[in-house]
């Protein structure tokens, strides 16, 4: 009896999981992701899987990633990636680099990478990660470090992508929890093998989705500012004219009379 129930639950769980994933993939503009998963999880797994009430109520999954609902998005909680590129001319690239780092750190940011060229034309490229709320102030302060010659600012609203990943992550998390419960109830080797295979596949998918969501949120949580520093071009003076009344040796050089 227990074996039959386990097999039945495995079949129901698989179809329910596919439905959950399909609904999450079609967009998050409708129902809230965690509410949908809770309902489908209860219908698919029945009494064999206990619902994670804390996770469903707060939107916090066992992966440690917070899932937002549609109502939260309507309240203006958007996910926006902000980027900017500045080019500044300065007489001392090394000193200005230090001042730029101080500007970013004072705003709660950090240096992500730096490239410097010390031979020939001295240049430096610094990439900073700064809090979005300090984005505009950091741009203004960096522009004041020298002569601003180029400025590009962009933003990308990735709210749809974030919510889609959150919904898929919630569905796969519920599926993994159901499969783990079924594995504990498996009565013979064929059942264990079948459940373990599906569980391994879903756990791999869960890990991939978690990584994608964290990477996307990292870009949202910290804006990226790229600062290019270069020294002004050397001033080439006009060739000095030689006066016609220069006597002696210098006049001979001018006319070619002195060898």
Major sheet characteristics: 5 strands, mixed
Total separate domains = 2
Structural class: alpha+beta
Helical content (DSSP H or I, runs of 4+): 40-55%
Distance linking N and C termini: 116 Å
Give the overall shape: elongated
Helical run tally: 9
DSSP strand count: 5
Q: Identify the strand order in the major beta sheet.
A: 2-3-5-1-4
Describe the structure.
This protein is of the alpha+beta class. It has nine helices and five strands. A five-stranded mixed beta sheet has the order 2-3-5-1-4. It is elongated.
Key descriptive features of the protein:
single chain, 259 residues, alpha+beta, Alpha-Beta Plaits, 2 domains, 9 helices, 54% helix, 17% strand, disordered N terminus
Annotate the secondary structure layout.
Elements: H1 2-25, H2 33-45, H3 53-58, H4 70-74, E1 80-89, H5 93-106, E2 110-117, E3 123-130, H6 135-143, E4 147-157, H7 159-185, H8 189-221, E5 223-230, H9 248-255
Parallel strand pairs: 1-5
Antiparallel strand pairs: 1-4, 2-3, 3-5
Compose a concise summary of this entry:
This protein is an alpha+beta fold and 259 residues long. The chain is built from nine helices and five strands, in the order ααααβαββαβααβα.
């Amino acid at each position: 009896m227990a074996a039959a129930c386990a097999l039945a639950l495995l079949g129901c769980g698989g179809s329910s999981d596919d439905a959950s994933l399909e609904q999450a993939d079609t967009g998050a503009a409708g129902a809230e992701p965690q509410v949908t998963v809770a309902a489908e999880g209860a219908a698919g797994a029945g009494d064999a899987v206990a619902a994670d009430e804390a996770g469903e109520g707060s939107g916090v999954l066992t992966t440690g990633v917070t899932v937002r609902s549609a109502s939260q998005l309507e309240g203006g909680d958007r996910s926006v990636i902000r980027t900017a590129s500045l080019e500044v001319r300065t007489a001392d690239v090394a000193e200005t680099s230090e001042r730029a780092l101080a500007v970013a750190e004072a705003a709660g940011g950090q240096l992500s990478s730096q490239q410097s060229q010390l031979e020939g034309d001295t240049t430096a490229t610094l990439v900073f990660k700064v809090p979005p709320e300090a984005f505009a102030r950091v741009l203004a302060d960096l522009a004041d470090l020298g002569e601003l010659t180029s400025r590009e600012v962009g933003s990308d609203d990735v709210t749809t992508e974030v919510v889609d990943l959150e919904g898929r992550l919630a569905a796969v998390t519920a599926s993994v929890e159901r499969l783990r419960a079924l594995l504990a109830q498996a009565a013979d080797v064929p059942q264990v093998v079948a459940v373990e295979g599906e569980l391994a596949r879903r756990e791999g998918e869960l890990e991939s989705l978690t990584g994608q969501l964290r990477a996307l949120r990292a870009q949202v949580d910290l804006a990226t500012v790229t600062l290019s520093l270069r020294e002004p071009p050397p001033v080439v003076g006009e060739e000095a004219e030689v006066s016609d009344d220069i006597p002696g040796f210098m006049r001979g050089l001018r006319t070619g009379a002195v060898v």
